[in-house]
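Methods: holo model generation. Sequences were used as deposited, without trimming of termini or removal of tags, and paired with ligand SMILES retrieved from the corresponding compound records. Each pair was processed once, and we did not select among multiple samples. The sequence and zinc ion SMILES for this entry were:
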Amino acid sequence: MGFTYSDNNGNRASGGGKRAPSRKNIKRNTASAKLFLAGVLVLLAAFLAVVCYTLSQPENVDPSQGQTDEGSLQSEAASSLEELSTVSPLSTAKPVTTTKSSSTTKKQQLLPSPGIIKINPDNWELTLVNTRYRLPEGYVPPKLLTVVNDCRLDSRVVPHYLDMYNAALEDGVKLTPFSGYRSYEMQERNYNNKIRYYQGEGYNKAEAAVKAAAVIMPPGSSEHNLGVAMDIVTCDSWFETTDEFTWLRENAYKYGFIMRYAKEKTDITGVIYEPWHWRYVGVKTATDIYKTRNAEGVEICLEEYLGVSK
Ligand SMILES: [Zn+2]
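and the model returned the structure below.
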């Protein structure tokens, strides 16, 4: 579009000079030409302003696409393994107009101040972790065990995961673990990198933190930091359509696992629909959750089960 501007101008500027004009006409023509030129310049300036503004905007984050600093192994599911917070207050920050410094009078969107949780050893498997309830800084589970390769979980969860894995295998379904425990430090690193990225895009620190939290959960607020959740993947592009998912939906609760982030509960969990993310809560709780459903057949989420949905 922009390329045609100068051509049009050039054609018009050179196209009107066939007759021998009077001095009056010349004056008039010169005045109209000046007016025309001024108009074109204004339009051009407006066009350039729009282009510059568009180019200066950070990429729009589409939560359904997902982003992670860990690199993607395969398609959408694997590339979206980091839980994405989609709570509206976290995703409505506006860019600053200049890169100089943040305006003190400007109203800022801030992350909710989180409460630091204390894990009760008697019901550790019910520990609620999200952006509002975070693990203490530097938290490490009491003991970690490897499930496969560098995939680890809290040692108390591993036997249950393996029972589930073997039961599925007997039914001809292979539950491939992709991502289990992630350290607090790693979460912090990824999160801080994302904050720096948005600061580089012209956001001030508070706004950059809000933007970053919409993509990568802040340290201590991911269930992967707690060591009780496993992301299970397949080579298919969308986990929900796989046999593995169907099997998990029908059987995971028998081994104490729940699908943590349902599509109907994103406003409560603050996390997008993640069919690949399975979390251990113990057989009794998982069974209760699995069987407590509304009229549409949607089971309750952990927040609702624990009575802390808001
Ligand atoms: Zn996950």
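The longest helix spans residues 23-56.
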